Every structure is written in structure tokens, then in C-alpha cells.
Amino acid sequence: MQLRYSFRLYPSTGQRMALARAFGCARVVFNDALRIREEARTAGLPFVTSAELSKNLTASKKTPQRAWLGEVSAVILQQSLRDLDTAYRNFFEGLKGKRPRMGAPRYKSRKDTRQAIRFTANARWSITPGGKLRLPKAGDVPVRWSRALPSTPSTVTVIKDSAGRYFASFIVETGPQEVLPKTTPGIGIDLGLGHFAVLSDGRKIDSPRFLRRAEKRLKKTQRELSRKQKGSNNRDKARVKVARAHARVADARHEFHHQLSTRLIRENQAIAVEDLVVKGLARTRLAKSVHDAGWSAFVTMLQYKAARYGRTLVRIGRFEPTSQVCSACGVKDGPKPLHVRVWTCGACGVVLDRDINAAVNVAKAAGLAVSACGAQVRPGPVPAPRSETGTHPKPPPIRWGQAGIPGP
To answer: Which of 37, 197, 323, 337 has the most CB atoms around it within 10 Å of its CB?
Structure first.
């Protein structure tokens, strides 16, 4: 399988200028190709192929208006055309129902705060013996290596994010040698907002709420940005400060997801999660909390790590009544308001924790064996039958001749 490894870059001033030039050339090529196809569509002409766009790019380099395209690597420009083809392919597949629908390709603006270029193997980029990334027409860029690459990368993407940071993203192939040894049976996970995750064995992982904790600092930086004059250098500096504050929040959330997903993958042979409707929940009054939790990113990490390490990830349907069914006896007790966190089963009298009960039902719906003790249920006070309550004194002796009973 293919994995992506990202490392921080620290280019010099001259290298930043060279990368900015490459970002601009890739953006212009993308917009020119998109304009050609849109004009052909408006005129009722056939769809312009990639080969025709490549020929037009080669011809435009010889004109005075586009002669500066030759100052960057030609591989970057060709990859920009391939990115446009990918955008069109995703758009058409969305119309056919083969993937979620998305909009048509749009023009890129030079005011976009995120820029990216991609180098393939034929671009002759390499990693120097000193650990630097050698890019064509940009030089040797220092890299902060946080870990070793498992194999030789096939492509590298240089990214500049909104906070002005540079990253090198490598795509590598991983083999089956990373399969972990088999361990204990599976576990069910119930994702929520009060607790980020509740496991079927009774453990509860608190939600860090990174965005909520950083709101005070974000409010201060955004207030400073709003007071700066538009188009000024001070406003651009304030914008970078806001972007860095948001980047710190995103990085902390990303690290939390990685650590928790890796721990769950290493401890369990199979993991079951519920397929939540994140888009629908993001349109409610809980939108900020839902985005702050980042459930989709966490489940995506579980998915690719399970495939990488030989584990099993099972997603159950979103309409499974995990919070309505008793995990002890299986009786459906109906929906309950969100403020009800503990409830008693009317059939068996077991007191259930709402979240732990849902996690156990998630595991059971996925076909995982979960013991009843893992649900942390405790028998509640069950009223005894009336025939068994109180004392049972002996009946008085029957005397002959009383109560209309004839004597012997």
C-alpha cells in the first residue's frame, strides 16, 4: 500500500524565491489549461485532450508572454496538467454516482495561502548524503527528519501552508512485513462529544477540545487582524499569526488522533466503529464541537493503519439502534433524550451506561465477541414477585363446626 510521510522544510531566502516562482508557474499552467477547456465547452467543441494541452504548453513556452515558464522544472508543469485531469475525472465520476459529488474545477488564485508542486522520479530530485532534499532549480533544501522512510519514495510534493511553513510530502510503498502479531479479540468504539471515544471494555477517552481551549488566543489574534488596513504589510503579518494559531490547534488534534489510533490498532485484533453522518451533524448547533472532535480524520487513520498492520476495521450502519438496545438481554427500549446518560432496562433490570452500552452494541453488531462484564453493567433492584414478599405465617387450624364446615 502507499503511504505519505511529511517532513518540515527550512528553505533559505533564495530557495523560497525559487519555490514561489515554481508555485506561480504551476498555477498559471493549470489556469491556462482550464480556460482552454472551458472555452471549448462554451463553443460546443469536443473535450480538449491532455495531449493537446501538453502541446499547447510546449508552444506557449516559446512565446514572449510565457517564456518565463522555462525557468522552472518541466515536470512541475506537466504534473499541474495531470492535476487538472484528476479534478475533471472526479467531477465526472461524481455526476455518474461513482463517488461523492463535487464541483467542477475552478481557477486558482495567486492569493491562495496554500501552494503545492509535485516532483516525480523523472524530475531528478534526490536526497543528498547529508540529509538534504535536492530539488531541480531550487538547490539543496534542509529537511527536519523525524523518522526514517521505510522505502525509496516515488514522488515528493513540496507544500507551503497558510502559516508560511514548508513541507516535503513523500509517497512510499510499504510491504507486508509490518503485520503485527495477533492479539486479543476486537473492541467496539462509540464516538461522542462528552468523551471522544468510549470503548466496549469500559474505558473512556476524554475529548481534548483543542479548539475550545484555544478560543481565547484565537479571538485575540483575529481581533488584531480585523484592525489592520486591508492590503498593508501589517495585515499580512497578522494573517500569518492567525494561521499559525490555527495550525497549532490542527497539529495538536492530528497528533492526538495518531497516538490514540496507533494504540488501539496495536492492542486489538479487530475494531468496530459506527458510520456517523458528520456532514449532517456539522449543520446543527453542535457544529463547532463536531469539527473540533475530528471523527472522520480519526476513522480514516484507523482504516489505513488496520490495513497496514494486518488488523480488521468494521463499520456498522448509521441506523443501527446502538443506544436503544440493552446490551445484556437485547431488548429494544426505544429512543432516549441526550441528557439520559444512565438508564435501566425494563426487561432485565440491568443499569446501563449509555455510552458503554452503545460501544458494546457496536461490537456485537460487527460480529465481535464481547463479554457482558465488559459493558460495566450492574444488576439493579428488581421488585420481587408478590407471592415471594413478606412473611408467610402458618394458617390457623381449622375447627370443626366453624365457618359452615360440618363436623365429622
So the answer is: 197
For the chain, helix (H) and strand (E) counts, in that order, are: 10, 16
Of 127, 121, 134, 146, the closest CA to residue 11 belongs to 134
Going by C-alpha positions, the residue among 281, 379, 367, 381 that lies closest to residue 320 is 367
SS3 235: helix
- In sequence order, the β-bridge partners of residue 379 are 350
* Closest C-alpha to 191, from 141, 122, 261: 261
Which three three-digit cell numbers place residue 360? 458494546
Between 393 and 131, the higher pLDDT residue = 131
Closest CA to 108 of 48, 30, 36: 30
Give catalytic residue positions: 190, 274, 355
Cell of 122: 523523472
3-state SS, residue 341? coil
Q: Is the pLDDT of residue 106 over 70?
A: yes
Element (DSSP H or E) covering residue 361:
helix 354-365
Work out the average pLDDT over 74-83.
Answer: 94
Q: Kind of pairing, strands 270-274 and 312-316?
A: parallel
Residue 200: name the closest of 379, 369, 380 by CA: 369
For 110-116, which contacts have Cβ atoms below 8 Å and span 24 or more sequence positions? 110/24, 110/27, 112/27, 113/161, 113/162, 113/239, 113/243, 114/159, 114/160, 114/161, 114/162, 115/23, 115/27, 115/159, 115/160, 116/23, 116/157, 116/158, 116/159, 116/160
User: 139 forms bridges with which residues in the sheet?
Assistant: 135
- Write out pLDDT tens, residues 379-396: 444 444 444 444 445 555
Residue 100 has pLDDT above 80, yes or no: yes
Q: Which of 235, 23, 198, 50 minimizes the C-alpha distance to 108? A: 23
| Nearest CA-CA partner of 196 in 145, 263, 140 | 263
DSSP 76-94: HHHHHHHHHHHHHHHHHHH
Confidence of residue 202 (pLDDT cuts 50, 70, 90): confident
Q: Which SS3 state, helix, strand or coil, does residue 342 take? A: strand
Q: Which residues contact 290 (CB under 8 A, 6 or more apart)?
A: 193, 278, 281, 282, 284
Exposed/middle/buried for 370, CB within 10 Å: 0-12, 13-18, 19+? buried
Residue whose C-alpha is closest to residue 255's, from 214, 282, 294? 294
